[in-house]
Design brief:
With 484 residues, the chain is an alpha/beta fold. It contains 20 helices and 16 strands. The protein has 3 domains: 132 residues, no CATH class; 62 residues, no CATH class; 266 residues, 3-Layer(aba) Sandwich (Alkaline Phosphatase, subunit A), CATH 3.40.720.
């Protein structure tokens, strides 16, 4: 490489004389594909996935190799990794001192080398840095953070070979992959692997799901109907705020997590199946199995929330429920606070694909000022829980229902295109008899029919929806946030 920027960086990083180096790099320079390729040419293995994928890289490292575990957060690692590693922070500014770093961060390495060999005696502004670049006659291309598809697939394959699959680990790996690849060429490969994952997940829930309804909630709610029992058992004396974000998938949570304040304990739960709001959000606020006669609306939800906590000996003035907007007045007396955000689900239903929904999710986070809400609640000594009633799936149309097929449907009021509920069993039976080819892709329960793959009762080529039993709909985030 001659006298180059990366020669200097590699020499500096290798001088720590450790086989495994944990590097926190918030400016993102080390995430560049061309930088990683140069590292690999120097027998440096780079892992930028989540903690699970980095664990896999750690286990597979060869004796002659150096491993860089690169992240944008100060992550915690297992004790055996921490014991053998060294932690450092990396800033491009340390090697290209004097330039406006955001302006040069994505420049070609050739240009960066020229800047590296042109030392600055004082710190340049953005415009001054641009003038220096202009004199070099180079244009700035876009570099995207690379996604290692093979590492993603290998990590999942290791987990899937286990006698008991860790679905939390699978969910976190898939969530990071999806949120990283939306709009990229690697997205189709990721979703192909997710389809494989979903096949295994359907085997799992067919065997184990009903047991979750009666599972212990002491260590955590394995299903959303156990969320309130978990809070009640473990935090009787603490102030608790439960934030339910309608339609928040694990990949969307992965997208917004770095922007949320507080110390986060990240876990998962399962939505009620079929994953419609009428059942699953009811299950959260009822604190038990949902009932079919219930009609979903904020008033009904508030009544369930208050009834549960009154039965647990809380006074009515200590319980509050807020819908889609937050009012901090009279917060001092509140010990049990519920906040429901509905509009992310509306955005989901208006999206034709995950690329649409990604942009809408980022805008939603800023518009609703969730960070400020959490910061305020933490300052008032609330322990905060974030969860969702269901996730979502980028689905494809099977076909739309005919007028006759729609007769007697949607008794639940669900607007999902992956779930239909007939008012009479014979209507459901008639639909199945006329469409036997669909049987392998659906679940039939009582008078309901819902998809377990990625199809929908729609003519759309793609759409984002929920209501079925797909892995991405059923596994939802369950997050505890406390003061740091």
């Amino acid at each position: 490489m001659g006298s180059s920027l990366l020669t200097h960086i590699i020499k500096e990083l290798k001088s720590y004389n450790t086989q495994v180096l944990i590097i926190e790099n918030n400016d993102g320079f080390l995430f560049r594909k061309d930088v990683i390729e140069e590292f690999e040419n120097n027998q440096i293995v780079v892992s930028i996935g989540n903690s699970i994928t980095q664990r896999v890289s750690y286990e597979l490292i060869e004796e002659h190799e150096t491993l860089f575990l690169i992240n944008k957060e100060n992550r915690s690692y297992l004790e055996d990794i921490e014991h053998k590693c060294r932690r450092i922070d990396f800033f491009l500014d340390d090697f290209l001192n004097g330039y406006h770093i955001p302006t040069i961060l994505k420049l070609p390495l050739k240009t960066l080398n020229s800047l590296y060999n042109t030392k600055q005696l004082k710190h340049l502004s953005k415009s001054a840095t641009e003038r220096v670049i202009a004199k070099l006659g180079n244009e700035e291309p876009a570099f995207n953070s690379p996604f290692n598809t093979k590492e993603f697939e290998d990590s999942l394959d290791i987990i899937l070979k286990s006698n008991k699959i860790d679905w939390k680990a699978v969910s976190f790996i898939c969530s990071e992959a999806i949120s990283s690849c939306i709009g990229e060429n690697s997205f189709s490969s990721v979703m192909k692997k997710v389809t494989e994952i979903n096949t295994r997940f359907q085997e799992h829930i067919e065997k184990d799901y009903n047991h979750l309804k009666n599972s212990s909630s002491i260590k955590g709610p394995k299903i959303v109907s156990k969320v309130l029992d978990y809070i009640d058992f473990n935090f009787k004396e603490e102030r608790v705020a439960l934030i339910v974000i309608d339609g928040l998938s694990t990949w969307q949570y992965n997208l917004i997590s770095p922007k949320l304040p507080g110390l986060k304990n990240e876990n998962i739960s399962y939505s009620w199946i079929p994953s419609i709001t009428q059942l699953s959000r009811q299950a959260i606020f009822r604190g038990s199995n949902p009932i079919n006669s219930y009609r979903q609306n904020p008033k009904s939800e508030e009544r369930l929330w208050k009834d549960y906590w009154v039965k647990k000996k809380f006074n009515d003035f200590e319980i509050d429920y807020q819908y889609d907007k937050v009012n901090f007045a009279n917060l001092k007396s509140i010990k049990r606070l519920a906040i429901v955000y509905k509009d992310l689900d509306d955005y989901m239903h208006s999206s034709k694909d995950y690329k649409d929904l990604l942009n809408l999710t980022e805008n939603w986070l800023e518009r609703k000022e969730i960070q400020k809400v959490i910061t305020k609640l933490l300052s008032e000594n609330f322990k905060i829980f974030i969860t969702s009633d269901h996730g979502n799936i980028q689905a494809k149309g099977w076909r739309g229902l005919s007028g006759i097929e729609k007769l007697g449907t949607n008794k639940s009021g669900s607007r999902s295109t992956r779930h239909i509920e007939y008012s009479e069993n014979w209507l459901k039976d008639e639909f199945i008899a006329n469409n036997p080819e669909i049987i392998k892709n659906i679940v039939m329960k009582d008078r309901s029919i819902y998809f377990k793959n990625d199809q929908s009762f729609s003519r759309e080529e793609t759409l984002v929806t929920h209501g079925g039993a797909h892995f991405l709909e059923v596994v939802v985030p369950f997050i505890e946030i406390t003061n740091e």
